[in-house]
Structures are given as C-alpha cells and as structure tokens.
Amino acid sequence: MLVDGFGREVSGVRVSLTDRCNFDCVYCHNEGLGDTRGPMEPAENEMGTEDVVRFLEVASEFDVEKVKFTGGEPMLRDDLEEIVRRTPDDMETSLTTNGTFLPGRAEGLREAGLDRVNVSQDAIDREAFAEITESGAYERVLEGVEAALDVGLDPVKLNMVVFEGTVEFIPEMVEHVAANSGLQLQLIEYMPEIAGHPEWAIDIERVHDWLAERADRIEHREMHDRRRYWVNGGDVSSEELRSSDRSSGRSPREDEASGASSDSSDGGMVEIVDPVGNETFCANCHRVRVTHEGYLKGCLNRNDDLRSMGEMTRDEIRDAFREVVHNRVPYYGEYMIRDGDGGWEVNDEYVGA
Length: 353
Ligand SMILES: Nc1nc2c(ncn2[C@@H]2O[C@H](COP(=O)(O)OP(=O)(O)OP(=O)(O)O)[C@@H](O)[C@H]2O)c(=O)[nH]1
Ligand SMILES: C[S@@+](CC[C@H](N)C(=O)[O-])C[C@H]1O[C@@H](n2cnc3c(N)ncnc32)[C@H](O)[C@@H]1O
Ligand code: SF4
Ligand code: SF4
Fold this sequence. Notes:
alpha/beta; TIM Barrel; 13-stranded mixed sheet; two-stranded antiparallel ribbon; 11 helices; 15 strands; binds guanosine-5'-triphosphate; binds S-adenosylmethionine; binds iron/sulfur cluster; EC 4.1.99.22; GTP 3',8'-cyclase activity; metal ion binding
C-alpha cells in the first residue's frame, strides 16, 4: 500500500465519473470542482469505461481496498453497471448518488457487485427538498431509497448536508433512521471552501452535543476520526439544536470501531462528517480522488495538485498515482494553517508550488 509523507496509507479511491447532474443543489462542491450545471448528454472529456477499469486495476495493484463512485451524478453514466462488474473483486464498491435513477437500476447494480449505496436526502419535506436541490424529484428519491433496500443494498446511508437550510430537519431525519432499521444517517458539515457562502454554516459542535445527549452508544471510526451515535426515537425535538445551549446531561457508552458497524439493536446510526478546520479528520484521511477527466488529486479541497494520467497506460497511471500520493498533505494543519486571528491561511510553503 502506498503511504504519503505524513504516514497516511492510501486505502481508498473516490472516482468522479461525471460532473454532470440532474440536480442543482445550492451547496454543491461537486467533489471540489465547482459547478455541475451544463448539458446532461455524455461529455467527451469524461474517462471512458476502459480508462476507469484500468485505473481501478492499477489501484488494486497498490492494495487499494475500496472505491467510491461519485460525481456529479454518477448514475447518469450508462456504463456504471459495467464499471462495477469489472471492478477488481478484492475492492469494496460503493456509490454516492442523489437516488433518482435507483428505481429500475438498483437490482442491476447489486447483481454487478455493488456493496453499498449512500443517497443524498437533505430533508423530509417536499418543499424544502425542492428549494435545496432545485429539483422536484423528492418522491423519486424516496423510491430510490426503497429500491436499494428492496434489493438488499442495506444499510442505505442517507447523506444530509448540515447548514442553515437543513438544520431544522435533523430531528425528523434522526427519527426516520431510528424507526427504519435499513437506514443510517450521515450528517455532513457544510463545506464553504468551494461552494462559497460561509454564512450558511452552523456550528457542528451543537449537533454533536445534541446527539450525545440522546445516544445510547457512541463509536469512533478510525477513518477521518468520525463519531457515530446510536440513537433511539422518542424525544428528538429540535429546540436545543437551534439554541446555542450546550449543556449535556448524559454520558453514553463510548466504543472504538474501525469498520462499518451496523448493529441496529442500539437504534439508528447517525454519523457526523466534520472536516471543516479539523486537523484530526485530515490526519486520518486515506483517500485519493480521480476527476471525471482522469486527473488524480490528493485532496477534495485542492485543485493545485491535479496530476494527469496522460493516455491512461498502466505505466502512466502507476507513475501518476505514486506522484500524487507523494505530494499529499493534510489540508487543515499543513496546507492551511492558523493565522494570527484564529482563522486559516495558506501555508507559504505551498503558495505557487
Ligand atoms: N473534506 C472532506 N470531506 C469529505 C471527505 N470524505 C467525504 N467527505 C464529505 O462527505 C460527503 C459524503 O461522502 P460520501 O461520498 O457519502 O462517502 P463517505 O461518507 O466519505 O464514505 P462511506 O462512509 O465509506 O460511505 C462528501 O461528498 C464530502 O462532502 C474527505 O475526505 N474530505
Ligand atoms: C457532490 S455529491 C455527488 C454524488 C451525488 N450527486 C449526490 O448528491 O449524492 C456527493 C456528496 O457531497 C455532498 N456535498 C456536496 N456539496 C457539499 C458541501 N458544500 N458541503 C458538504 N457536503 C457537500 C452531497 O450532499 C453529497 O452527499
Ligand atoms: S445531486 Fe449531488 S452532484 Fe448533483 S448538485 Fe446535488 S450534491 Fe451536487
Ligand atoms: S486532506 Fe482533509 S480536506 Fe483534504 S480530502 Fe482529506 S480530509 Fe478532506
């Protein structure tokens, strides 16, 4: 396995299959590449099926254990099933999608070997959903989640970006996953770095505190040092979540977890993904990314380290992979460092590098 200069093994790759999308979520970072707006037809600059498969075969040579397919909307690719089928057997395959194309295709993906799926659902409310995603496909997304569960792609993780426009729906979403054993919830801290609008962010510690008060059990996940809360339904009113009161009356059991635990006996699982300004998150980051155009990049938040894989021969892919891993730096704490006022600024060492 390749290891970067900060001792981080590269065990996973995130492959963006397209930057096209049928939604236009107001917060979208498009995996670090910005706007998803544009024509929906297949674009010439996208990696072809053979390129993606060859890349995954080389990644497997480097003992990469998992691949996440993402985008844009990865299900706009008609060859997704073929890509999943041809992914090396020793790699766990997962997909992050807006869910609209899962009805009708979930079974094929399962048969092709897909192991897991994350579906973005920011609210249990049709109107709010339409406002956030600039799409009227709310029912279609719910159908997509059902389709995934029906073919045994469970647990399905629901991805919810936590920002001003969604915070009020957290209690209902927690209740929703607590009541449905096939579902888990992932609360993703809004990242303004690429999407802009820093004023939309809310203090994610409030959400941690709110969940800690209600959790029967808390787990630590080694990846990104993420915390998982196991919450039963019941009193999940959002009042405290909206207020800044941080008093915590309970001490839930706290366990270590290295893998994807899914014991539903303790209630619904809620995981918080909180990268913003989080040096510990970056210190536990084991993934390299590939853009739809076939560039490798070492960090979601950076585009100054893009490395082309050229004509995508195996040797070119190997060289690019080694180089990108060699150049990886933790974004927070190394690339971005504290300025005198407690904010973040680019480390001089990397300016123009
Ligand atoms: N800054 C940063 N954000 C990340 C990283 N990984 C995931 N995220 C954020 O979390 C979002 C959802 O991630 P998913 O694609 O659902 O996958 P995941 O939760 O990382 O992976 P699994 O839990 O294994 O399914 C991403 O699009 C990012 O917004 C990362 O390495 N760095
Ligand atoms: C870029 S989308 C691509 C996959 C697919 N279209 C989807 O929405 O699931 C991947 C994930 O990134 C999350 N995301 C997008 N922009 C974000 C931002 N600014 N901050 C935090 N998460 C974001 C989305 O909620 C989604 O779960
Ligand atoms: S569905 Fe995914 S890729 Fe499309 S705009 Fe929303 S977050 Fe971005
Ligand atoms: S280094 Fe940090 S910001 Fe960059 S991808 Fe990894 S966790 Fe995210």
